[in-house]
Amino acid sequence: EVQLVESGGGLVQPGGSLRLSCAASGFIFSSFAMSWVRQAPGKGLEWVSGISTSDESTYYADSVKGRFTISRDNSKNTLYLQMNNLRAEDTAVYYCAKYRGWSNPRIDYWGLGTLVTVSS
Amino acid sequence: DIQMTQSPSSLSASVGDSVTIACRASQSIGTILNWYQQKPGKAPKLLIYVASSLQSGVPSRFSGSGSGTDFTLTISSLQPEDFATYYCQQSYSYPLTFGGGTKVEIK
Fold it and tell me: Among partner residues A45, A50, A105, which is closest to B98 by beta-carbon distance?
């Protein structure tokens, strides 16, 4: 059974940093591209970032480019999202997501999400 | 970036009704379009991929169609468990983008 378990969320002040982690199990992690998707309270889904199987390719939403960094450790079956210079508008539930495909991916599994709150 | 526009933003329907949700892309995306269902407090769930392929385990009352810029998701006979919010998403090019969502409520 595929499981994606996020951790690392919490309350942080504007301008601060957080690192989210996603522990993956139930599939061959190194064979699948991965992604982060977020959802602000009461709002819709927003794709944040994606990473290929061996992290040779990464993509970011314009809203986080230059502030967030996605990475993965295939030896630990773990996906990361380093978030710097956080803003109030980054407040959201952050979902770890498994891709099917890379060039034209679909998200076939999602984690339960971790809440990030940016507030003073 | 490709913008995705869904309509309506919400609708009310009864159990047994047929429901159609529209999704329009700001440029042609072929059939590289996915549909997700999200219930309150839960993670989204993949329903349809490449516009019309049913994800494994999804009931056959869900169907998708369209190509180019215009797509639809149809629920043929609405069931109580189908009341949720539905999102389209294009995977034609990065950054991936979602529609704003359509909330299906009980009439």
Answer: A45
